[in-house]
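Box 3.1 A note on notation
Throughout this textbook, protein chains are presented in two layers. The first layer is the amino acid sequence; the second is a token string describing backbone geometry. Keep the layers aligned when reading.
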Amino acid sequence: MIRLRRIRVRGYIRMQVLIVNHREVQQWLPMSECMDVMAETLKTLSRGDAVNPLRHAMWLPDKSGLIGMMPAYLGDTEVMGLKAISVFPGNHTTDYDSHQGTVMLFETVNGRLLAMMDAGKITAIRTAAVSGVATRLLARKDANRLAILGSGVQAQTHLEAMQIACNLSSVRIWSQHFDHARKFADQASAAHGIPVTAVDSVKEAVAGVDIICTVTSATEPILRGDWISPGTHINAVGSSVAFARELDTAAVVNSTLFVDRRESTLNEAGDFLFPKKEGAIGDDHIRGEIGDILVGNTGGRESSQEITLFKSLGLAAEDVASAHYIYQKLSKNEAGTWVEFNALKSE
């Protein structure tokens, strides 16, 4: 049940909107809890009880960045929402996150705005949480060696999610800039209490590991199929557009492919569309959605030698579900920052 905050002032009912900044998102959306929320959201999608249109993006003329608009409706929560977010890959070398914006949450009885939350932090947490859900389902049960390709925000949150999903024994980190990888390794080793080693080549990073997370801004393949060991699970996360990919064709062809959303993959996933355009795979190369595994409509890993691949694009339904979860927690605890935003004349 949606809780609405309202006060009466001079004959008007003043509606209050919850404002949640990045620190509060971090506080109220712990990774382990977000993984549970994402699992339920993926189930909802697979059951058909959600509306998740393809995202719409407007690029700047010089292609340096874009603003994306991602709406969704979740039937089991009585909410709908919209994420409006800017994506500037060049921010990896600045003090700014590459993803910045807001998630707006609305109720579906009268369409009232309930909350506005920091989209960058929600994106960072929920993206890794979905990879964590996929890894629990698809990685070998004894998987404990991780390689992360990339050293930005998603590298940080994916390390946290992978630690929750698996009992990690070691981590290798690669970045286009070795000094970034080394800094990440030093900080992550201290923070997580496991050995994190910076390496200067992708081939070295992925040799013999059990799990690979690609979280880069690369537009051309960085991970080759002949570098991937049998039995590896891959979370391909960095590319969410049709014209960019992190994996070469062999890496995709040699893997059993699972996705967050089939329709999105067929329209937006360069990691899938490039091999398809080359004639190396067809649409039937997609084994199923992660939600299909969760609801029992399809199986997951079939052998210890199988290479499994989860192609993540990120879905508005995941953002809306995350915002709804935070909204419910703050409402229940009577916490957070509530501001007067709109009014309804009293009868």
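The longest strand covers residues 12-20. Confidence is low (pLDDT under 50) at residues 7-13.
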